[in-house]
Amino acid sequence: MSSMQGEGDGARWALVLGASSGTGAAIAEAVARTPGLDVFGVHRGRYVDSAVQVERDVRQTGRRWVPWQADASTPEAAEAGVEALRQVAGPRSVKLFVHSIAGASVGQFLTEGEDRLHARRIRRTFDTMAHSFVYWAQALVDGDMLAPEARLLGLQNPLDVTHLSNTGLISASKAALEMYVRHLAVELGPKGHRVNLLKFGTVMTPALKHVYSPEALARLEAAHSRMNPAGRMCTVEEVARFVTVLAGDDAAWFNGATIDFSGGMTLRLIDLVLNP
Question: How many domains does the chain have?
Fold first, then answer.
């Protein structure tokens, strides 16, 4: 776990968890351009080359990039990370917080063998996919780090309606995240802050490529092309551009919302079952 010292200058900052690759990386670069936020990017150090590219992209916009390597899923990491950010940016400097970390287990609850979702895997998945959103929100509030009208954003997927056989734990943790978002929206609303959840379909990321073989990825992409009315998968760049909208003044009335950005991905599920 690392930290850095610096002088805050009152600039607005984006705190992005999972900023070194995939959706988090795309969001970091996008919000550096619009609305022009400096980026404090938290990552585990797994995708070194990608992290270097994100740093290059953010700095090309003229904004600052401050990396912080840690396992962001624990309350201790949240407290230490917020303190490191405070040393760089000063109090009330975080305009946007994005929770874009993943570390979920797939499997089944009652099966035998390696696919069984035992207690350690359940705790780890919930800490990473759900509880950590609360840990970082608590640390930001306790550290007086939220700028006026700050936006806190979690990321969701359509697994709450697709019910794939080995993704029950992911679905459950994302359901918990949705409840956290709603309750935090109520608690932070009177202070002028907004807390929302952005639901989008499967996107091609390094993490996905790490889990699936090239052949499985090809089948996955083909299935999503059939499923989505647009005939293709969503991209991380499209998700990132919409996050810049949510960070702007025009989206200030969204609060406690689960925003569907799936492109209609689930609209043809029944049709595909009946007409495979």
Answer: 1
